[in-house]
Design goal:
This protein is of the alpha+beta class. The chain is built from six helices and ten strands. The longest helix has 15 residues. Bound molecules: zinc ion (2 copies).
Length: 240
């Protein structure tokens, strides 16, 4: 059965277009401090003359601005998936470029060791003056308890509560780690307990943003986007 989802490209464009060149992301690269994304070559060139994020004016590292860039593979994959032939065309362009300079074709770009950088971004949810996010596109979420759970925690029964208010609006740049921080706080979960956030039966890793989840798992579906949370089962707790 054909399960192709028809996607209106106009709707998705704002998420996958570089604000510096107006084209689809090529080598999507994110500033770790504010999570704005650009083409790698666009942002590297830009930061040579200016030390602020082009989108939010956040000051990036004074002496080594490139330290704060990391490749955004997920977003790039989305672009390649959505825009057929972009990848092939880009590969061809690179080959031509390398040939014209007499360089060997590098079939595996990015083999250089990349530092896995954790965004230092402080959570908008815990931070009421998260001014960096104020003008962001917002997304409506429903944070639903996966199921009532009880675990043994230091000899006591710990019950997973449901949120009083499960609907929330947040910036599309909020990460799963931010949501988890909010859940820990609102549900008074001890910090040594692990929780999982799930969308569409997929467990989400901490560094994934709402934008990525939306584009990967929720595009074309009805809002709010539903995320589930639950205690993670570990060897020293038994979930019932
Ligand atoms: Zn660009
Ligand atoms: Zn920014």
């Amino acid at each position: 059965m054909d399960e192709t989802i028809k996607i209106c490209i106009q709707e998705i464009n704002p998420h996958v277009v570089c604000s510096l060149c107006g084209g689809y992301f090529i080598d999507a690269t994110t500033i770790t401090e504010c999570l704005h994304t650009f083409c790698k070559s666009c942002i590297v060139k830009y930061l040579m003359s200016c030390k602020h994020c082009p989108q939010c004016q956040l000051k990036v590292h004074e002496t080594h601005p490139l330290f704060l860039l990391r490749p955004d593979r997920t977003l790039q994959d989305i672009v390649y998936k959505l825009i057929p032939n972009l990848f092939e065309n880009e590969e061809l362009r690179r080959e031509e470029f390398n040939k014209s300079r007499g360089m060997a074709v590098d079939k595996k770009p990015g083999t250089k060791k990349e530092e896995p950088t954790v965004p230092k971004l402080s959570s908008i949810i815990n931070n009421p003056d998260g001014h960096l996010y104020r003008n962001d596109e917002q997304i409506c979420l429903c944070l639903e308890r996966y199921r009532p759970q009880r675990i043994m925690h230091h000899g006591k029964v710990l019950t997973l509560r449901a949120l009083d208010r499960k609907f929330l609006r947040c910036s599309i740049r909020v990460l799963v780690s931010h949501l988890k921080a909010m859940l820990f706080k609102k549900l008074a979960i001890p910090s040594d307990v692990q929780i999982e956030v799930i969308c569409d039966r997929e467990m989400l890793s901490d560094e994934v943003s709402m934008k990525q989840i939306f584009l990967m798992n929720w595009f074309g579906k009805e809002t709010p986007m539903v995320l589930y949370y639950r205690f993670r089962e570990t060897s020293d707790n038994s979930v019932t």
